[in-house]
Structure formats: structure tokens, C-alpha cells
What we know:
70 strands; alpha+beta; single chain
Amino acid sequence: MRKSCLLALTFFVCLIVSAQKNLPAGRQISLDKFKNWKPRNIGPAGMSGRITTIDAVISNPNIIYVGAASGGVWKTENSGQTWNPVFDEQPLQNIGSIAIQQSNPNIVWVGTGEGNPRNSLNLGAGIFKTMDAGKTWKRMGLEKTICIHRVVIDPVNPNPVYAAAIGNPYAEHNDRGVFKTTDGGETWNKILYVNDTTGCADLVMDPSNPNKLIAAMWQFKRTPWNLKSGGAGSGLYITIDGGKNWKKLAKEDGLPDGQLGRIGIAFSRSMPSRVYAKVEATKNGFYKSEDGGFKWILVNSDAAQITDRPFYYQEIYVDPKNENRIYDVHSTITFSEDGGKSFSTMIPYSGIHPDHHAWWINPEDPGLIIEGNDGGIGISRDRGKNWVFDEKLPAGQFYHVNVDNEMPYNVMGGMQDNGSWHGPAYTWTNGGIRNYYWNNVGGGDGFDVMPDTEDASWVYSMSQGGNVGRRNWKTGESWFIRPPALDPNLKLRFNWNSAIAQDPFDKKTVYFGSQFLHKSTGKGVNWEIISPDLTTNDSVKVAAFKNTGGLTLDITGAETFCSILSIAASSKEQGTIWIGTDDGNVQLTRDGGKTWTNFRGRIPGMPVGCWIPQITASRYNAGEVFVVANDYRRGDFKPYIFRSSDYGKTWTRIVDENKVKGYALCMIQDPAEPNLIFVGTENGLWVSFDNGVTYEQWANGYPSVSTYDLAIQEREADLVIATFGRALWILDDIRPLRKIAANKGMPFTNTVTAFTAPESYQAQYKAATGYEWSTYGLWDAENRRRGAEVSFYIIKPKAAPDSAANQPAVPATEQPTILPPPQMAGAGGRGGGGRVGPGGGGAGRGDSAIVRIYNANNELIRTLRWRIDSGFNRQYWGMEEKGVRQPGSPKPLPGATEPGGLQVLPGTYKMLITYARASDSTFVTVKDDPRLGNRNEIKLAQRKMYDRLRKSADKLTEGIDRLTEAEEVCTKIQSQLKGVEGKETDSLRKATTKMQDEIKVIREIISGKPSDRQGITRSFDVTVMTQLQSAQQSIGSKMVIPGQQEETMLANAEKAVAGAVQKINGFFDGKWKDYRQQVEGTKVTLFKDYKPIQ
């Protein structure tokens, strides 16, 4: 058994270290070509996730590194005002420890694999090092240790570095204990080893002697149905020569007799002879040493003060300035002021999330404390009296994800120890997606959340141990609907992560799993059992989870075994239901539960007894099913996904270690294109374009994070991703991937390939709630961009000439509109904060494509220029037509950006994309805001009035252009007359000045008198422009058919423009004509006579 586990571990490490793309050379399109397409991380961050380790730069504590159990490494350089992930390019995100080399803070070590082995722990693959403060990383070995809980650096000579590895809690293996390098990680020596189930749970260095260390060795073993803490291998070991020799401390040294479990240890920095230990034993106790750790005495054995859940948290820390002040980090935070004799509560089960794992105290300023817990981090600046939760770390560990069909649609799911949540995939609200947009729909450890398909305001929400309810997320009404045991002697076994499903044929029918399959035809009000026990019902394992924990019992239900994990009801054949169990059964009924077929041992390549986290019934074929399996809980890290197309008669393995990295967690087949399959593993997201034959990792803006569940919002073709460590992500509009998959991944050959565009809505955006100007410091997840999305693929010519020379001629365009109409599409970016550019896309020269937009009558309504890149491109059109110039604005230069105008009417528009003399097209369907309904009658009436107004504006624009040209003539003449003398010249100069004054008078009638006074000025004059603008505003400022008020204001504007045009015409027919005659009749000598220089 041990030999097989070692082989499995070696195999797992090989998978992590050497990734393979497995794409046949020169055959399939590469996802590298889609580098510009990145998913949105929508959070939430208000619940954050499990933080395992924290370190900060002592000389500059504004710089902090935080390690998440499965969410990578985060860094701030401003005390948490902003955070950035710095480990995303690495092959996994499971972090156990961080250590900064304080003598050179650019050097940071990261040990992977968390050291608190709960049932949902995440495993690692070695130790990493950065030499440039997190910009780049290099793996430095120790891949087989799996979980590294501590990294300790010699503060005097940074070459010696120690790594404390607990090893793999699920398997026996030798790569655990204490390791040491003296050459920067190039080579490692195992300097302390006990046995193949004992690792190092804590390692501390004497602050006064870097060669003296104390190691807490811990014998621990976890299985899916049991955990055992304690054994002969546990104990304290001390070295004074840097690990060359170790002494195991025993009863005669003051430690308890018998088996020990996990031990937390801490030196006092202010008095290094004082050492504390929190010891798990037959009788747990808190111990103290006054001689640097050689001899110990018991100071506290009160279970209420010193016993919690040692396997999950058993760490203590000493105030660096006070050897008697101790912090005990566990489910709550307690502290002692008397050297451990008594403890008081500092952080209760409120205010800051409970279940604490990480603790950092500034050694120079003990008032600054940063702590990490199952829900993020807390920061105190007054020695723990007050705390602030930092809401900007989206490290949530989601188990499941689902979507509804609302508009906009909602995303929902449950997180480890952070409840269940329901929030928007995007919003029609200015700004991003904020934490307070999310609704809590369940507590505890959140798991599956599903919308009621009849009424999306209700959801089914589940927490650990089968505690399922119905919750109305709008009103808060809540029902508890877990199936009861009607027979008092029947003990139902609900998995920590129980299974629930809705019937595709009956919206009121729900299925739920214990060891039986339960069915309700009334949305959970009443239940019936429709199956026998579908598990192995192994009595030994069932008994084990009822007495789990080892030295300290931990019977929470997390190890409940022989239970149903997954349920899949076929949408193609009523009564066909598949289930998967935690003990390896795959069962099928085709008659609604009357009879069952068990495929245990009948699926070639599937380990018997493995975990079945997901079963998916095909949307295409009644006999087709996908089974996701993993066996890492027994030491096997290979990925397993199987498919049957004939109700289980034959099976094919479609995912293995040669196709993806990391054990398999989930999969989904696209409902519109069967060749497109997505797979989530412990090490990222994978895509197949050929129905599971080959896969490639999606690494564009998405880390190699534990990818637990996937959903597709079918109306909008969005892939929604639940990660166990980085919260929720959305890959907007996967239609381009469908087109690739329809051709089984073959590369595009055309220069321009346009993809089917999603429907676009002329949505009205509201102001964000709660905050307006001061939004710095708020979590603001990326919203969907505004405008009509257009996706296309570009193959650039090998010798790409200048794009401008390669494009068909684009006629000179005009400049800005009279006023930005109220219905115009807003900016893009994070839902309203950023600028999309003209037409909703990035305009400019450089390498660009010309986009022509045609209406249903094939009339050209808009011409845009979009910057492009080789490969995939996605741009946004603001759903506006071509605009007109505002009177008085400069004439556009040749090739200038075309201005946007009024919003187009709902309908279908053709987008013709041209690049390098090649073109392709797609169609955009524009729809009204679904919340407001069809308003075309109003829009058409407004347009009619706008057209009238535009005629007047065009006349005024032409008149102002003439005035401008006349001013330019006057300016040129004045320039030519400068320094020239003579009677005619003086007369012409005066006449020119008079013409400039005449033009100024007309301009003031049109635009008002300018002010040369300093400060904020405002003109209250009624001018032609103010009347034009007022009419414009009145027409479009409200969604009603223009009435008499607008008619009057328009008539006023028309009258004002007519008056101004009359003055302009009169000026050019009279005084300007006389002036021109004077200029043309004046003989101006611009030359001087020069005498020879003597």
C-alpha cells in the first residue's frame, strides 16, 4: 500500500511539473491566439476565503504578502488599500507558507500545500522563490512534500532556509519532515524525519540563536471517512546546530506521557529563554519553558481555554515586546496576559470571521497585527482592541455555481465556511459589481444553490450535512426542507456536500441525496424515498466517521461517508436518473427509481471506491452520461472523466493525465455545440474543441486555480466558473468558441472572421447605491462592458503593410454632435467608468480595421475604425448612428474620427469588418431595455423633431464656418499689413479691424459674450446656441412624445437661428462685400528699398 502511494505521489508531481498541451502539431487552433479575451472576476470579496499565511516587510510594513489556501499569493504595497495577485502565472495556487528574507525583502519564499488538513484542503507541489518581490517566480524543489506549512529563514545568514512539510495527509510517504538548503534552494537535505505518516506541523527559530530550532512533529492521517490526529511519531524535537542533531523531548523533560498530537510552539522575542507550547495529548495542555525549550512545565489544562480543533488550528504567538502576552489562534482569538495561566477572548465569533489560521505581529510595533481566517484578513493597529476587515481579497472557495434566467441574470453558489450567496453577473448600474450587491441565501459552509425554475426569487440553498432550505432572496422568507427520517431507527447519512437536483420535466419536483435518493413533488414540502441504499453501506467506514478525530474528537459531520454526492436527471428521457456516491458507486435508474443498475467495477480505468463529485446527463442523447471521478483522498492524483453513450454498456475515458493537469473536479458540455467541452481541475480550466479528444488550458487572464464547478447561461452564452480559492468568474459570450468547435478546432484561414454577436440592449443605467464620489478602497469587480459586443478573428499578413495604406478609402467625416443625446450609449470599462471610444470601440491609427454598419435597408449608418491585434478581438459599438457637427466646432481633418449620434432604433444591423482588403460580416440585434418595453413610437416622434432641429443647426454651422473663414482672412491681412506704412494701408488696417468687430458682434449674438475675468464665470444671456441646446434637451430629456412645450422651444430655436443666419447673410452681402472690394483695390507694397551698407 505504501509503495503504491509513493508511486502515485511521484506521478502527481510529474503531472504538476511537466505540463503538456497535447495539441497535435500544426493541427488545432491555439488558445494563445485568444490572449485578448479574458474572463471577469466578479467576486464577491466581502466573504473572501481561507487565508493560511501572512508575512510583511519589517522595515516597511506597508508591504504585506498574504497566502490563500487555494487562492495564490496577494501583495499590497500600501497597507491593504489595494491588493494584487502575484502568483497567477504559477502552475497551482494552493499556498501553505510565505517567508520574506528581511535582509533583502525582494527575496520571498512560498511553500505550497496548506498545513491545516481539513476535509477540503488543497495540496501543493513544492517550494517557490522570487528574487524580484513577486514579479517572477522559480520552483526550487520539494515537489513531493505536497504540503509545506512553514518556511524559516536564518536572519543572520540568509543562505540557510528551512521548510517544514507535513506531507500528504491522505497518504503514507517519506517526503515529509524538516528540510534545509544552504544554497538558495538548489539542493535540499532532509534533516528531520520520523516516519511516513509524521510531518512537521510547526517550526520555530530561537530569536537569539539561528542554529537553535524547535520542530513540532505530528503524526496524522486522513481518509475520506476518518481523521486521526496523534501517534508515536508526534513530539517536540530540538536542535542547537542547525539541524545536524536533534533531541526528542519526552516525559522527563516535562511533556505529557503517552501519545501526542499536534503542537503549536512560540518563542518570546523579548525573552528567548521563554518558550510556549500548546500540546494536543490524551489530556491537552498549555506548557511553558524557561530555559529555551529544554524543560517544560504545565501552566494550563482547562479544556475550555486550551482545547479547540487542533488538526485545523493549533498556533500560538507571543507579543514581541512582552513575554507574558500570548495570542492563541484558533476558532476565536484568545489572549493571555499572565504567561498562559488564563485566557480571555479578543475576537469572538463575530466582527471578524472565525476559524483563524495566520498571524503576523510587527516585531518593532506590536500594535500592528494582521490575522488570517476562513473569511479573509483582519487588521488591528491597537494591539487587538479594534479590528478592520479588508474586503478586497476575492479568495472565496466556491463548491458549486448556478445561474438563473433573469435580466440581467444572477449567479449563485456556496462557499467553504462563508455561506451561500446570490448576486448579479453584471449590472445596469454605474460602476462595478460591489460586495453589497450580493444577497446571503444561506449560512454555514455554503454548497449548492439553485434557482426555482418557476419563480427565480426563490432558491434552493444548502449548507453542510444536508441542511437544505428554500429561501426567497428578495423577502428573506426561509423554509427548512431537509428530508426527515420518518422511521426513528433509520439514520440518514448526508454528505458534507450533499447532492440536489431538479427534475427537467416537472418544475416542482426535486431530488436530494442521503444514502437514499429522496424525491419531492412539492418543492421540498414532503419527501419520499425512491431507492434502496445506493452506497456500499460499509459498516466499518460508517462507524469510523461517528468517532473521528483521534486524540481530540472532531465529529462535525465532515467525514460522513457512504452517501450520495451527485444526482443527474436526464432532460431527454423522463425517469432516467444517474447518481454518484463518495464510495465509488455510479448507479442508474430508467424507471424513476424502481430499479437500479450499479456500475461499480464496470467502468474500465476508474479506481474502485473513488469519489464521484459530478455526474452530468447529456443534453443531446438520452443514453449519454459524463462521470467525473477523483481519488486524491487515497493518494491518487490522476484525473478521471468517463463517458457512456449507451446507458453504461460501454465506457470511454475522455480525460486522463496526458490531456490535463490536476485531478478532475467538474465538466460541462456546451448545450449548443457538442464538440465544445470545458473541464475544471485542481490546476485550472481546460477546453476541448473536438468532443473530448484533446484539451488545452485556458490561461488567458485566468490562474491555474482549483476549478470546482461550471455553468453556462444559455440565453447569453456565458461560461460561469466557480473556483475554490478565487471566487467566481465569467467568460462572456462563448459563441466564438462554438464556431471553432463546430470545425473541431481547425484554425481559421480567412484574414477576417466575424463571429455571431449576442443580442444587445439599450439599457438605462442607474447610479450606484451607497456611494458616489468617494469610492477608493471599495471592492469594485469588473462589470460587463456597455454597448453591442462584436467579436472577430484577424490573421495578419506575414509582411503586414501599414494598415492605412491597405484599407479602402474612408470618406472624410464630421465632428461632434450638437449635444450628446440623452439616449446615447454610455461608456464601457467597468460598467460606466471608462471610455469606450468613438462608436464604442478603440479608435485611432496604428493597425486597425474599418467597420461599416448598415441598417435593415442596407443604408450605411456608421463608419468606425477599431484597433486590432492578431488573433481574437472583441470590440463594442455604442449602438449609435453617425452624428453631426455642433455649430461652431472646428471642421474635421481628413480621416478624423466620425462622431456618434442618436441611438439607433431596435432592429438588426449588419457589421462589415474590413482589414487588409478582406472582409467578413456579422449581425447585431439591438433591443429595447426589457424593463421598459418598446418605445419606438416615442423615439420616432423625437427623431422627427430632432431632424427639424438639425436643419436649423446645419444652417447655423454653415454660417459660423463662413464667419470663421472671414476671420481667417482678416487675420492674414492684418499679418501682411504688419510694419507696412501708408495712407491706403492705414485705411485697410482700420477696415479690417472693423470687420473683426462686426464678426465679433454676430458671434456674441450666437454664443454670448466671452468673459476675461478670473474664476468661475457664467453667462445668463439668451443666445442662439442656448435656445438650440434648450430645444435639444427638452426633446430628448424624457421618454414621451414631444408636445406643445417642445414645439414652442423648437420654434424659438428655429426663429433664433433664422435671425442669426439673416444677420450673417446681411453681413456678407453688405459690409463684407464692400470690404472685399477695398482689399482688392488697395495697392499694398510689402517691399522696402535698401541702400548699400557702407
